Amino acid sequence: MEPLSLVLGVAGAVLGVVADRFATRWPAHDEEHPPGRKADWRTVVCGVIGAVALGVLPLRFGGDVLALAVFGAWFVTLIVGLATDLDQRMLPDELTLPVIPVALLYAVSGLNPLVGGGLVLAIAAAVLIPAVLYLPSIPFGAGAFGMGDVKLLVGVGLLLGGDRALGGTLFGLILAGVVLAVLLVTRRIGRKSYVPFGPFLILGA
């Protein structure tokens, strides 16, 4: 393992734990999700995902400093978003909206190694994937597939490009299906229970 990967992996683990603790206070909580939750399995999940996410950056992008900076910053927002969605079932606009213009500029510039010459496909993925998932969920009401998930997927499409965005989204949805099936069979949740999709989409990304 490269030294930088090790350093970033440790930093990612720390970030994940801090993000989990931060999510117990921000954004504003309600009666259903009171502030001040003690460390639990979500703390561990955020720490592990943070370590893996930041640790693989140098292995994927090597010496591309701009890519390391852009995707590193994005992964930070994803880790914090993972923490808030697990804690409050919420992906705040402060984490998803700023990603979109930066991702678009990065893609248009031709400097994004994951998009390259596939700008049209990246934009198509940023528009179509969220639409295909969100529109059918409207009849089921709030909580089925949230606007936070939509904004998240716009950024995913622009940063990962068409093929990777589609593959990552499918992976996230399949993972969500497997986890939900297990939770239903073990009666940890009911058929009307709300389970956030954001964490699965973040893992897919």
Layout of secondary structure:
Elements: H1 3-23, H2 41-55, H3 57-61, H4 65-88, H5 93-96, H6 99-108, H7 119-134, H8 147-160, H9 162-185, H10 198-204
Helix pairs in contact: 1-2, 1-4, 2-4, 6-8, 7-8, 7-9, 8-9, 9-10
Notes on the protein architecture:
By secondary structure, this protein is an all-alpha fold. 39% of the residues are buried. The longest helix has 24 residues. The chain is built from 10 helices and no strands. It folds into 2 domains: 90 residues, no CATH class; 114 residues, no CATH class.
Tags for this model:
68% helix; 2 domains; 10 helices; single chain
What is the tally of beta strands? 0
> Structural class of the helix and strand makeup?
mainly alpha
Distance linking N and C termini: 22 Å
- The portion of residues assigned to helices is 55-70%
Strand content: under 5%
Task: Sketch the major β-sheet.
Answer: none
Mean pLDDT: 89
**How do the SSEs run, as a string of H and E?**
HHHHHHHHHH
What value does the Rg take, in angstroms?
A: 17 Å
Segments where pLDDT lies below 50 for 5+ residues?
Answer: none
Tally of contiguous helical segments: 10
**Shape, per Cα inertia axes:** globular
Compute the number of structural domains: 2
